Structures are given as C-alpha cells and as structure tokens.
Amino acid sequence: MNVRQVGKKIKSVSNVKKITNAMQLVSAVKMKKAQQRALEGRPYQELLEEAIYNIVGKAEKNASELLKLKQGAAKKLSIVVTSNKGLCGSFNVSVIRFIAKEIQKDHEFVTIGKKGSILIASLGGNVIADFSSLDLIESVTAVFKIALERYLAGEYKSVSLIYNKFISTLRYDPVQKQLLPFIMSEVDQDSKKELKNYELEPDAETILDALLKSFIEEQIRHAIVESEAGEHSARMIAMQNATDNANNVIYNLTLLKNKLRQQSITYELLDMITAKESVESI
C-alpha cells in the first residue's frame, strides 16, 4: 500500500463519516419528538387502564367475548412491532431473540414493520399478515381488525403484543402483553390499590365490549409510539458509534500515510547519498 492508496481510503472513510454524522443529527431530532410522544402518552394510558379495571371489576365474567378463553383453539397469534428501516443496532434483533422460543407450528404472527417480517420468515415463522408497506400508526385499525375477527372466530386461543418498550435513550426492553382474552393481571398493578365507584349508564355489561375494543386498539397504537422512540434512540447511538469509529480509522490511516511518506523520503535521501558517494569514489 502506497501513500496515494492510503489517501484514497482516508477520503472514502471521511465521506462515510459525513453520512453517519448527518444521520445521527437527523435521528436525534426524530428521537426527541418520538420520546416526547411516548412519555406524554403514558399518563393517558395509565388512567385508561385504571378506568378499565374499575369497569371490568363490576361486570360479569361472561359479559364480553373478549374476556372468554377460547378452549377449542390450538394456535396463538402475536402482533410483532419492529422498524421499517435498519441501521439501528440491535433494536430489531432484540425483539426477534425475545420471540425466538415462540417460533412453533402452532404460533402465527402479524408484523408491523418490514424488519420483523423478514427476520421472522427467515426463522421459519408463519407470518399471516404484514403491514410494513403502510404508515405504522395508520395500520393499527387494520391490525386490530384481523386479530379480533380471527380470535372471535375461534382460530386463536390468545393474542399477544410484542414490542420494544422505551426506557431511556440508552435502553429499550422487549416486552410482551396479552391482548386477548383480556385478563385483569395485564392491568397496571398500581391501579388495583382501590376500586373507584363509577356511575355507568346504562350498565357495565352494555358498554364493556366497545370499551375493551377501544382499549386494546389503543394499546397497539401506544406500542408503536414506544417502539418508534426506542428505534430513533437506537439509530442515533448506532450512528454516533459509527462516526466515532470513522474518526479512529481516519486517525490510524493518517498515521500510516505519514509513516509511508517518511519512509519514501528516507529512501530518496539514501539514494541521493549513495549516488553522491558513488560519484566521489570515481
């Protein structure tokens, strides 16, 4: 490798560094907006869970089909939320590792996000529907409709939701929530401390079914918001690491270039001295 080749490598790495640095800045802006949406939505989600707990607690156990376990069904359905784009470190892989143990013949998947569809299919999972071509938030109603219709038809004994929950800029954890049948243990434990007395008209059984459907659909929507916050955080960190690595590579290549240039100058001086001594000895 000569000085010119090293110079070309330095230029190439510098161009890559500009791209990763620009992507880091863009991800930082998107991350801030996504984090704000996720954090602002949590109080609403917690209050909604508390209200659901109070209403379900007053209703009969068989008041809604969404509370009943489908005894005859053998399959399970999981709604998996991932990203449509890559370059976000281990963000998508962490979800796939979490569900790897569920890749069985009796388990089927609905994917929200292109990466999840590709990775699950590569592991042999059965993806019955993929919504990666749509805006993730806009696909919520269609996803819920498929899951609800097939659950009520008795095809699945349970429907669960798997996604990356945003914890902080440096942390996101894969979690699983059971959506159907709706069970009280899925409600936030803090909301069980006391049962509030709501006045319901006409009665809890009448409004329960519609309320549970809205609540479950909202859980899917909130999971996408949480996942997007974690995705942009992961991509920002990944691009920051890539930029730092590019700086290290440029530094090492610059040292190599200087050594090669010094070596070339030394050889030229030796040739001049050798030629001079040869002339003087004649």
The count of strands amounts to 5
SSE run: HEHEHEHEEH
* Stretches with pLDDT under 50, minimum 5 residues: 186-192
Helix- and strand-based class? Answer: alpha/beta
> Roughly how many Å is the radius of gyration?
29 Å
Strand % is 5-15%
The number of distinct helices, counting runs of at least 4 residues, comes to 5
Main sheet properties: 5 strands, mixed
Mean pLDDT: 87
In CATH, the topology of the largest domain is named Pyruvate Kinase, Chain: A, domain 1
CATH class of the largest domain: Alpha Beta
Instruction: Report how far apart the termini are.
Output: 37 Å
Q: Would you give an account of this structure?
A:
The protein is an alpha/beta fold and 282 residues long. It folds into 2 domains: 3-17 and 241-280; 27-239, 3-Layer(aba) Sandwich (Pyruvate Kinase, Chain: A, domain 1). It is 58% helix and 15% strand. It contains 5 helices and 5 strands; from the N terminus they run αβαβαβαββα. It has a 5-stranded mixed β-sheet with strand order 3-2-1-4-5, with helices on both faces. α1 runs antiparallel to α5 and α2 (91-99) crosses α3. The radius of gyration is 29 Å and the shape is elongated.
Task: Show the helix and strand layout.
Blueprint: H1 3-58, E1 75-81, H2 91-99, E2 107-112, H3 114-122, E3 126-130, H4 140-152, E4 156-168, E5 171-180, H5 204-280
Helix pairs in contact: 1-5, 2-3
At a glance:
The chain is an alpha/beta fold and 282 residues long. It has helices spanning 3-58, 91-99, 114-122, 140-152, 204-280, and strands spanning 75-81, 107-112, 126-130, 156-168, 171-180.
